[in-house]
Amino acid sequence: MKKKNVWIGILCLAGLIAAIYVDFFPQEEADADVLLRKEAGEGDKALTYYLTAEDILKDYPYQIAVREVKYTEKEAQEYMDQAKEEIDESFCREGEELSRVTLYVNPASSYAKGAVQAEWTFSDYEAIDLDGTILEEGVDLDGTLIVASAMLSCGDYKEEYSFPFQAFPKERTTEEQLLEKIDGYFMEQNQQEGTKTISLPMEMDGISLQWIKEKEYVTVKVLFLELILLILFPLIRIEKEKERKKEKEKMLLAEYPNIVSKLTILVGSGMTMKQAWNKISASYIDKRQKSKSEKNTAYEEMYRTTRELEEGKSERQAYQKFGERIALPSYYRLVRILIQSLQKGQKGMMELLEQESEKAFEERKHIAKKLGEEASTKMIFPLIIMMAIVMAIIIAPSIIDFMA
Length: 404
Description:
The chain is an alpha+beta fold. It is built from 10 helices and 8 strands. The strands form 3 sheets. It has a 4-stranded antiparallel β-sheet with strand order 3-4-5-6, with helices on one face. A two-stranded antiparallel ribbon has the order 1-2.
């Protein structure tokens, strides 16, 4: 970076020196009292001097127009002769001659390296455009004679250069000619008034025609559609699975603070962790059997853990399996607390559960806030649509009145 800044500084300094040199050491004029004119064809120039005339003028800005050197008559004629030669060589497309021209010609605006300017005109603008394009609709099949005129100017000298050429339509293949005639036939059919049908020509200039309707390829279209569906169905299933998993996680996270709070209360009342766990599971199953509560994933997993404990699995293994099935950070924290209680006993358990309960409720607040923001964002688009409808209802009568 430092090296780059140095180079930028050097370039700026070089530019400043060059500017000072141009301002204070002009090289354009050989003599202060003599103004140099540009060579013919290089263009004019304007110079500004500050004029002082004794007591009459003081540093008066005076602009002098210095015209380019004029061509002599001999020089102008030489350039014009050169321009004519260039016109003869470049006017027609490669491979064509003035006796047979198709598609376009090349009327340039300058010749002889810019020394000669040319203004072109043509005798028949129905057969040729200003840019030299042959207009086929205005050209006869046997050719149309067109006279091209170029007004050549070199300095103060002018000369007109004219010559004729024969323009023909583009040469068409037998196939192109046949298609053009068929196009003309259908154009004529479409222009007929009162006819509701168009008949297909079976012959054109002695050539028999056969018409076969384009296949719709229904099999291919159906196959293509089925392939798309085969690709989309798994993607839709995957997306639905993601949504299902997301909803399950939302339910688990929403219920987590309640589970921790219930465990804290029951353990605080003197129950062991296993007794508290079984109590919560049993209460949930009892309500489910009495149809007092809907199915809840978190309590279903707790009940599954209770069944595993009843079947003889150790508490440590059962709690670990519980955490693996749910696979959420908050539930992993709870499992660590449960396993710690197995290792160290109930001592310090209440404090850990109370801390986790507070943390869980804070997380619930954060999640609720996030969900609220997402819901408000989702409402923006419907609100925009509603606003557009309301604006249309308000503005429409005014527009109708104005048009009336």
